[in-house]
């Protein structure tokens, strides 16, 4: 390759530089615009920039570097015949082209990792399939890196690659590089094709309209175009063999390398752009809020229902279930959707328009899963026994691609054969989870909270209460309340029951908190009576309050009677009965939206009276402390919602199981030990949080737990005397818990 000599038959004035730069600049600017739009959506609208977004940004920088180097190269003389260039310009052109290929290869390799990350997050495949997908893109990345190494070691010394006049220059056959580059391109095309076809295969096996299937398949399958570009690029690799006219013979290869890289990035960005169109056109729908509490649920962990994990899209199974998916929008929206009547009734002042999408979804039980419990729940122990749902993700993707209304939160009513998921909370022991805090910044420690919620959900509990009294709910901001529920849903999966405390001082406050809880993924609402003005909170006020809440709340309501924190306001069994019956009378279906009560008043007589009035399939009665668990069960309670379950969740669940299996004496003996151990925790939240820090938090893999589980100021942590009492009183039960 030299500039000496002028071969006949060549037009030395021919210059392909403009032909190179025009498509490269045009396509790269389109790519950059879409990446910027994507990042704007993720940072400003969704308020969450994920790992795939960072990878795409790096890919964009690689593409811009490739464009910049190629532009400089064209100025140097690239795109012209080598014979038309003097030696310094020829060598500089070859050097820039070689460096440019480095960035070009990286710019079409990195986006594959981002696409794989996005698809596995959205579709959440099985562990084996996820390993296969990331193994495939990792293989493509390794092969591309090896291609770069071969490119830079074709000559000895390496500088001889572009220093064509070196006397000691020794180079290998260019076909070594060409053959390996063809293999790299073929693998790249296969990976692009697989990442495009994979979501299409899943979508076409689901029961939905052909229009939606086509639109979703097109949006998520644009990688097929990138695969085609990779194949075309392979046909241009022969230009590398033209060592005599390198600056002219490889010009089409440069273009197609850029095209392939840009198309991969563009394909990864298009599915995320619908919210930007709404943002520009001012179509941000009331109530749907593309914000961190709703839209962002698609982006976390495993995303699916409410941002939760364990939503998996797999092939056709032998069993099927019918799922009714209903989206809730804001007021006066033509695209609003109401929940089914059996869930709740809309308020009179919300002029909604009804639309329901029915999606038939296939499922299968995980390995070692147990049969559905008699209450109709999918799982008896939490995530490890959960059914695999594959509907919610279609709704989320449809919103992005098809300009469908984005739901405040999907409501899913599930039918498995003839058994429906319960309208009332499942019986058993529930834990009102305590709150982890960063003491230095006085903010929520959400990572610790996620670990803690995950551990509790795997400890045999019937469900979790988020924002109960022991969560220090009244010390939290509205945003913090919503964050905790969202975090809990992410931690425990889509089908594990969550009850959210939504206590407030007014009906409006409670309904706002209720909507936040609904948005974040809660299943039930735990509602204290308003009691700031204690003497003015008369039975009539209480009944009107709960009637309004039951009628307007987006989820089933559980009454919360705790006179010690409500200015002495005490709900007796007659008031509770009237509230339940009034809600049923207002409902067209005759089903009350008040579905349970938590009694922290320790009055077993109330349990007796209420259980004689309402059947367990209509109304769940929970004790508010664990030391009268068996007493409550003996007269008809559903179990308990007890702070002590934070500390020894397995033990309390075991007591419940022993009693329900008929081993009453064994249950009583263990219950007596638990009651004695529970006694110190009754002194306050600080004591409970300290006990959590030394007993259950370490089992959740939480380090420095004692610091993370201190009360929020102005309240003080447990004293040394209390700490010693806790260790002494709970030591025996802690040893028992370790054996379970």
UniProtKB/TrEMBL annotation:
Transmembrane parts of this sequence: 20-41, 53-74, 94-119, 131-154, 174-202, 214-232
Domain annotation Rhodopsin: ranges: 37-277
GO molecular function: 4-hydroxy-tetrahydrodipicolinate synthase activity
Region (Disordered) location: 322-349
Listed Basic and acidic residues bias regions: 340-349
Keywords, ordered alphabetically: Membrane, Transmembrane, Transmembrane helix
SMART domains (UniProt xref): DHDPS
Protein name listed in UniProt: Rhodopsin domain-containing protein
Organism: Talaromyces rugulosus
């Amino acid at each position: 390759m030299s500039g000496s000599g002028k071969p006949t038959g060549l037009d030395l004035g021919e210059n392909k530089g403009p032909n190179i730069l025009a498509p490269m600049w045009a396509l790269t600017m389109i790519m950059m615009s879409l990446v910027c739009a994507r990042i704007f959506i993720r940072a400003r609208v969704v308020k969450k920039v994920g790992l795939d977004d960072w990878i795409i940004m790096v890919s964009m920088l690689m593409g811009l570097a490739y464009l910049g180097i190629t532009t400089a190269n064209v100025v140097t003389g690239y795109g012209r015949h080598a014979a038309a260039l003097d030696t310094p310009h020829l060598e500089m052109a070859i050097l820039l082209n070689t460096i440019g290929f480095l960035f070009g290869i990286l710019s079409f390799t990195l986006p594959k990792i981002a696409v794989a990350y996005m698809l596995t997050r959205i579709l959440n495949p099985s562990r084996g399939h996820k390993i296969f997908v990331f193994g495939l893109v990792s293989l493509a990345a390794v092969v591309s890196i090896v291609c770069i190494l071969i490119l830079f070691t074709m000559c000895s010394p390496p500088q001889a690659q572009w220093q064509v006049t070196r006397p000691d220059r020794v180079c290998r056959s260019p076909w070594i590089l060409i053959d390996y580059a063809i293999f790299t391109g073929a693998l790249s095309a296969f990976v692009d094709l697989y990442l495009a076809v994979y979501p299409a295969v899943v979508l076409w096996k689901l029961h939905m309209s052909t229009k939606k299937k086509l639109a979703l398949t097109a949006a998520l399958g644009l990688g097929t175009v990138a695969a085609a570009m990779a194949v075309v690029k392979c046909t241009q690799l022969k230009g590398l063999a033209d060592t005599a006219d390198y600056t002219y013979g490889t010009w089409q290869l440069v273009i197609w390398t850029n095209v392939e890289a840009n198309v991969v990035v563009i394909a990864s960005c298009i599915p995320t752009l619908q919210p930007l169109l709404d943002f520009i056109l001012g179509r941000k729908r009331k109530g749907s809020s593309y914000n961190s509490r709703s839209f962002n649920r698609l982006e976390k962990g495993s995303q699916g229902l409410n941002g939760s994990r364990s939503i998996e899209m797999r092939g056709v199974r032998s069993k099927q279930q019918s799922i009714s998916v209903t989206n809730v929008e804001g007021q006066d929206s033509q695209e609003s959707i109401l929940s089914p009547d059996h869930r709740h009734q809309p308020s009179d002042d919300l002029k909604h328009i009804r639309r329901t999408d029915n999606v038939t979804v296939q499922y299968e039980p995980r390995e070692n899963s147990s049969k559905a419990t008699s209450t109709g729940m999918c799982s008896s122990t939490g995530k490890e026994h959960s059914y695999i749902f594959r509907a919610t993700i279609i709704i989320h993707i449809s919103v992005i691609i098809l300009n469908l209304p984005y739901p405040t939160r999907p409501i899913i009513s599930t039918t498995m054969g003839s058994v429906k998921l319960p309208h009332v909370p499942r019986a058993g022991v529930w834990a009102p989870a305590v709150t982890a805090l960063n003491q230095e910044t006085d903010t929520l420690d959400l990572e610790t909270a996620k670990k803690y919620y995950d551990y509790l959900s795997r400890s045999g509990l019937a469900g979790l209460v988020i924002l109960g009294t022991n969560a220090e709910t009244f010390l939290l901001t509205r945003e913090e309340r919503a964050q905790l529920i969202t975090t809990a849903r992410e931690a425990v999966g889509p089908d594990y029951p969550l009850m959210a405390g939504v206590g407030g001082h007014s009906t409006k406050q409670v309904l706002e908190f209720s909507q936040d809880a609904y948005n974040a993924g809660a299943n039930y609402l735990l509602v204290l009576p308003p009691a700031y003005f204690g003497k003015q909170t008369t039975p009539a006020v209480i009944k009107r309050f709960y009637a309004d809440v039951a009628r307007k709340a987006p989820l089933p309501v559980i009454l919360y009677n705790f006179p010690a924190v409500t200015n002495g306001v005490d709900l007796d069994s007659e008031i509770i009965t009237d509230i339940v019956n009034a809600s049923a009378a207002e409902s067209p279906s005759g089903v009350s939206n008040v579905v349970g009560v938590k009694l922290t008043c320790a009055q077993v007589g109330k349990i007796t009276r209420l259980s004689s009035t309402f059947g367990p399939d209509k109304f769940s009665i929970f004790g508010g402390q664990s030391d009268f668990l068996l007493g409550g069960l003996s007269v008809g309670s559903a179990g308990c919602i007890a702070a002590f379950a934070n500390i020894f969740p397995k033990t309390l669940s075991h007591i419940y199981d022993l009693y329900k299996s008929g081993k009453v004496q064994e249950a009583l003996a263990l219950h007596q030990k638990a009651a004695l151990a529970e006694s110190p925790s009754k002194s306050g939240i600080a004591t409970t949080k300290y006990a959590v820090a030394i007993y259950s938090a370490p089992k959740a893999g939480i380090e420095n737990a004692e610091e993370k589980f201190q009360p929020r100021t102005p309240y003080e942590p447990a004293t040394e005397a209390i700490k010693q009492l806790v260790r002494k009183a709970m030591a025996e039960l802690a040893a028992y818990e370790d054996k379970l």
